[in-house]
Design the sequence.
């Protein structure tokens, strides 16, 4: 097993984040439009995402929430048919028109998908994968970071004796936490979570939700969901989307109690 | 009414099981038939001596199959060395990087190549590869060669196997979920990192399976190889020398086998050997797939 000597490890390298400025904006999206052929998927999106809060993107299936989320870490580049225009600022860097390398931009955002996608590697190597991509080669440092983030997502006790087993040998809930640990290990600023509990049982879902509540002290979380109750439980900020447009945005208590638009009112009624 | 539906249900099941049994029994029946036809040969030479002896003098009743086996293996391994990396890289490019236009263009090209009769590859081999090997490659290395060589056989066989293996590899890589690629890219991997550590790794069992089937197909390929390989019984490690693979032995000599005693049994035994070796290749690759799936 991995015996750690933390005295030799430079904490600057391993994800101890500086205390962040509360309530400022970490993501700013201006006039974002996405087309797929003739289909206008996202229509003139303008939003600001506050730092160290949970922002929930709410809306019916197919309204463009996932596309918007994937646009933020340029995974829309994988789909050549998509034409993206507008600006997305992550901490003042326009990532859509950037000259800096895209892998470095993506490392600023950990991604958690609808269903967990463990890499075809061992549990340990899954978490170590992103760390190595950052250029960290020291085995002790890597082992320290792996353990730290497996502990952070509450998985260490469950896997410490089988770190070399394939990640696919874990349960779905454990795999999702592993994916979260893997994302956190690259020191992201933001966690992009795309309906991360949709494939999980209620107990695993609760674990993930509780983790998000703890993680928001250090990370900004952007959560896509169509589950109204999940939004109520977790959100500090709600963005309601409908057919590619942002309809309403704001504090969940006010927004969900007194919706301004008929579309959100209907959605809340049907959701309840 | 219920009885009729039950009857149709049972009949359909019986038909399906029967069809499956026929498919399962086919290789067994072929194997038994070839073995029985080879039995007379075992009375004059042991199995081990037949497989390991290099003396091929049918008129004197000496049947050593080692030159044929080694030729077959040599040509097959050469073709695999040429075809495997080309197919892997082409399949990765087609599935991970190519534009839809290129994919649309490539698919019919691959299908046409896969559908070409082997005699066309053979003629192309005689017209292009044999002179290339005999008049360009061999002189470059100060070797005298007719061009009808093991190397020519390997190249022609590789070209024949490429569309077959490429098609399978494309299918394999297309099954890698896009979510897995996104997961890797989101962690800061480049496209190449993702291909190397995720796509290829995830596809290991499929890649092995494609290679295994390709190798088994290459081992049994007859006509095109026979046209360019020289068909001389000899033991050699020099790829610029002629060889004589097992399938070519059968195809070249089947018409005259009755004139020499035991020759028919010898040819049936070579077919039996071919079946066994292909079976061994398949079992070996199944084992590899099993091992990689466990990882």
Sequence:
């Amino acid at each position: 097993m991995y015996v750690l000597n933390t005295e030799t490890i430079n904490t600057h390298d391993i994800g101890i984040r500086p205390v962040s400025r509360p309530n400022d904006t970490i993501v700013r999206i201006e006039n974002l439009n996405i087309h797929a052929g003739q289909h206008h998927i996202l229509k003139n999106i303008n939003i600001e995402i506050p730092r160290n809060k949970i922002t929930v993107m709410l809306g019916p299936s197919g309204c463009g929430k996932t596309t918007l989320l994937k646009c933020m870490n340029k995974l829309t580049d994988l789909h050549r048919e998509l034409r993206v225009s507008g600006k997305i600022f992550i901490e003042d860097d326009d990532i859509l028109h950037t000259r800096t390398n895209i892998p470095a931009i993506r490392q600023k955002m950990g991604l958690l998908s609808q269903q967990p996608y463990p890499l075809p590697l061992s549990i340990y190597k899954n978490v170590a994968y992103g760390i190595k991509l950052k250029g960290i080669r020291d085995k002790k440092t890597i082992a320290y970071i792996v353990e730290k983030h497996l502990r952070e997502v509450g998985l260490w006790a469950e896997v410490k004796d089988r770190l070399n087993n394939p990640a696919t040998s874990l349960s779905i809930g454990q795999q999702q936490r592993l994916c979260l640990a893997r994302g956190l290990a690259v020191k992201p600023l933001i966690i992009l979570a795309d309906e991360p509990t949709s494939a999980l049982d209620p107990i695993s879902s609760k674990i993930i939700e509780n983790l998000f509540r703890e993680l928001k002290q250090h990370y900004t979380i952007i959560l896509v969901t169509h589950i109204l109750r999940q939004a109520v439980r977790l959100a500090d900020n709600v963005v309601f989307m409908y057919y590619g447009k942002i309809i309403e945005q704001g504090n969940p208590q006010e927004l969900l109690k007194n919706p301004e638009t008929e579309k959100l009112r209907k959605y809340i009624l049907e959701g309840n | 009414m219920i009885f009729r539906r039950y009857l149709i249900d049972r009949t359909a099941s019986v038909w399906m099981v029967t069809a499956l049994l026929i498919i399962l029994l086919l290789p067994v029946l072929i194997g038994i038939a070839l073995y029985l036809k080879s039995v007379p040969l075992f009375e004059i030479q042991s199995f081990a001596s037949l497989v390991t002896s290099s003396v091929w003098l049918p008129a004197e009743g000496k049947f050593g199959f080692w030159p044929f086996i080694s030729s077959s293996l040599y040509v097959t391994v050469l073709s695999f060395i040429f075809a495997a990396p080309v197919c892997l890289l082409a399949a990765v490019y087609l599935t991970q990087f190519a534009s839809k236009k290129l994919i649309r263009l490539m698919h019919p090209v691959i299908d046409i190549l896969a559908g070409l009769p082997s005699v066309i590859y053979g003629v192309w081999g005689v017209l292009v590869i044999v002179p290339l090997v005999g008049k360009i490659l061999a002189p470059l290395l100060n070797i005298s060669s007719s061009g009808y060589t093991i190397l020519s056989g390997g190249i022609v066989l590789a070209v024949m196997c490429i569309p077959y293996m490429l098609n399978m590899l494309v299918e394999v890589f297309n099954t890698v979920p896009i979510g897995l690629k996104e997961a890797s890219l989101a962690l800061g991997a480049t496209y190449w990192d993702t291909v190397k550590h995720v796509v290829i790794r995830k596809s290991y069992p499929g890649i092995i399976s494609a290679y295994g089937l390709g190798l088994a197909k290459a081992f049994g390929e007859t006509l095109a190889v026979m046209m360019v390989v020289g068909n001389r019984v000899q033991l050699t490690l020099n790829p610029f020398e002629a060889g004589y693979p097992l399938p070519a032995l059968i195809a070249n000599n089947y018409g005259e086998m009755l004139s020499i005693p035991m020759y028919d049994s010898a040819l049936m035994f070579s077919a039996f050997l071919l079946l066994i070796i292909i079976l061994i290749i398949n079992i070996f690759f199944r084992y590899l797939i099993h091992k990689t799936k466990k990882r």
